[in-house]
């Protein structure tokens, strides 16, 4: 459940009613193309030029792995953006993204920081959970697994926003889906905890694991299909969200904590509406996606407190 990309099922409505076309006219502009060609030719073509460029590069940028051609793209993005903004009165996107200023070499600094906020939130509540819930609780190990999967996903989210590469993109997508599927798995295991037989739980665990491996292998080795990945996340996330909300409704008589849990699920779902807000980054760092990560950061506090109440 909670702070993961389960909420991607809402994006279905965005895709249907808003559309998926997002042209990056900034990187297609003659100003940008001529600038990058000239910069690469002047600074990245000869060993002496590369040595001069490398000596001026900061340690964080070297550590993250920015190349000379990457720096040309970055510099030309800003110079062409100023020209295009003066000409057309609006900020262009480049390669499907708004212009972001690098801070300590981070490509999208706010999203990196807010992803780490989510990681710290899960870590803090996991420590609280371990101190509060007895190890003999029936769902003890399951919720620890869920917490570790969530923290792993937020680590890779911060890495991906630090620098977008094919590898970091895949790791972000795959780990994000792992939290969606793990949340549904925890719901199923929780629904079966009163049954003494192990076979139904084993079948569900193996089914989820096989489905996840199949999805990752297909995406990584056959074709990285964004549409297919979106449909899978929408389907699994929608089922997961609906299951939890139905459970909350059926158990609403148990107390105030049930309402708080339902509110947390709805808050995560509604927070995705921030993705509808298309605006140039505030201070060239904070866009709608970063705000989404910021909004979800405190929600694990409510979710783990619910788990402590209902699963002990």
Which key phrases capture this entry?
13 helices; 70% helix; disordered N terminus; 312 residues; elongated; 0% strand; mainly alpha
What is the CA-CA span between the terminal residues? 18 Å
Topology order in helix (H) and strand (E) letters: HHHHHHHHHHHHH
General form: elongated
How can the largest sheet be summarized?
Answer: none
Q: What is the mean pLDDT?
A: 86
Could you tell me the number of beta strands? 0
How is the topology of this model organized?
Elements: H1 11-17, H2 30-43, H3 47-56, H4 59-64, H5 68-88, H6 109-132, H7 140-162, H8 166-191, H9 199-222, H10 226-250, H11 256-271, H12 288-296, H13 299-310
Would you write up a description of this structure?
- This protein has helices at 11-17, 30-43, 47-56, 59-64, 68-88, 109-132, 140-162, 166-191, 199-222, 226-250, 256-271, 288-296, 299-310.
- Residues 1-23 have low confidence and may be disordered.
- It contains 13 helices and no strands.
- It starts with 10 loop residues before the first helix and ends with a helix.
- Helix 6 (109-132) runs antiparallel to helix 7, helix 6 packs parallel to helix 12 and helix 8 (166-191) packs antiparallel against helix 9 (199-222).
- By secondary structure, it is mostly helical.
